[in-house]
Description:
By secondary structure, the chain is α/β, with parallel strands linked by helices. The chain has a single domain, classed as Carbamate kinase, CATH 3.40.1160. Helices cover 36% and strands 24% of the residues. It has helices at 34-49, 61-73, 82-105, 138-146, 177-185, 216-227, 258-267, 275-289, 301-305, and strands at residues 12-18, 52-58, 109-111, 115-117, 130-136, 150-156, 159-166, 173-174, 189-191, 198-203, 206-209, 231-235, 242-243, 251-252, 255-257, 293-296, 311-314. It has an 8-stranded mixed beta sheet with strand order 3-9-2-1-12-16-17-15, sandwiched between helices. A hairpin with a 2-residue loop joins strand 10 and strand 11. Helix 1 packs across helix 3, helix 6 runs parallel beside helix 8 (275-289) and helix 7 (258-267) packs antiparallel against helix 8 (275-289).
Amino acid sequence: MVYSCSPNMSKRVAVVALGGNAIEDPSGGGKPDAARIMFTAQIVGFLLGEGYSVVVTHGNGPQVGELQAALLKVGSPLASRLDLLVAMTQGEIGQLLAESIRSVTRAECVVVLTSVVVSKDDPAFSKPTKPIGRYLDEVESAALVRQGLSVRELRVDGHRVYRQVVPSPSPIDVVELQSIRVLLEQGSVVIACGGGGIPVIRVNGGFTGVNAVIDKDLASGLLAEKLGATLFIILTSVDAVMMDYGRPSQRPIPRLSVSQAERLLSEGVLEEGSMAPKVLACAKYTRATKNDSLITSPERLRDALKGFAGTRIVEA
């Protein structure tokens, strides 16, 4: 089936943020999975058929970790350049997604290497807390420390291991925003803000990369807001936001107002580093645009758009 994607920015715009399960086989160590990627391409095709122009964003955590580990083994100084590792994996994952999207939809699909601006004064830079990559042994940990990176010691099954921790500053702007707009106007599906975007700060009228990782969902929500997207969708491993997640009393939350979402976040009942940033990203987008946002799984998206699944965040 060929999906219509004609040049027309009067179309509704959907920004779709893909979680790891949309591109990776969970049993395969985080490696991209062709069947999952093809299913994701079919989702894009469905949204095109529903009359949306589509922007796809994605995570890159396992891929950054694998690339960094390979560079550490050969002693490459690039191992300490998180901005460049994000750029490399944007290209890797973007190409895999674009190939499948073109094959399924016959639409033009463009991968935009995207830089996202953060503040050099963001307090996250003085307190690296976001873990990235795999567990490290003592030798690998020491190699990172020698390159000026931060490592946290952990105990796993009684063994001492290490993991890199990095700053995760808040996104404040998207450098290639106008280019993404033009591509949408021309009828392209756009893949952008991979891995939260390449983190950059403003310096002397330009930009320079920094060692940080931006939360993918927050960057995606910011992009959706700045594009004036009609709908912001986060696809993840669960069908909806759950109250009492992981307990016998677990139950889905079908609908949240922005104020209700903000209250859940302030009460700390959502999992940090997992569901909390997703709900935060949706609440920020919906408060700014007054448009709905949606959290669900790839498998239940069609039902969620009809109100039969997922969690919809609404203005009030």
